[in-house]
Design a protein that fits this description.
Largest sheet: 5 strands, parallel
Shape: globular
Strand content: 15-25%
Helix content: 25-40%
Number of helices: 4
Distance between the termini: 32 Å
Low-confidence stretches: none
CATH topology: Rossmann fold
Length: 126
């Protein structure tokens, strides 16, 4: 399976990307900063791109079977600013639709805002 990985440089993204690569998946890492990505993932396939650039995202996504997203929102960002988990996800979905990608997995940092709301509880029970 060919996977385009978006958000590989974050706290959760790094270990997940490493595990997918170790497991033998054909992974391409989307990078705004290619030099940082190469430092973190030597030898990995890297595509230059950004979730806010639909044309570049479309080019990076072409030929992949799935997309894995691990995005977050800066704590200091304002509501009117572009957000990876709002406009970025919209762009990812539009690009997936136009390139024929049928599987998308996403981990969201926004779920913390809903903890306890209407009986919703995030986490695992043991």
């Amino acid at each position: 399976m060919k996977i385009l990985f978006i958000g590989a440089t974050g706290m959760l993204g790094q270990p997940v990307a490493n595990e997918l690569i170790r497991a033998g998946f054909d992974v391409t890492l989307l990078a705004r900063d290619e030099s940082n990505m190469r430092r973190l993932f030597p030898g990995a396939r890297i595509a230059k791109g950004d979730v806010f650039d639909l044309t570049g995202l479309h080019a990076a996504m072409a030929g992949h079977d799935a997309v894995y997203c691990n995005l977050s929102v800066q704590q200091s960002s304002k509501e009117k600013e572009l957000q990876p988990e709002r406009e970025g996800i919209s762009n990812i979905l539009a690009s997936a639709h136009s390139t024929g990608v049928r599987r998308i997995a996403c981990i969201s940092s926004l779920v913390h805002k809903y903890e306890g709301m209407n009986g919703f509880h995030w986490g695992l029970s043991v």
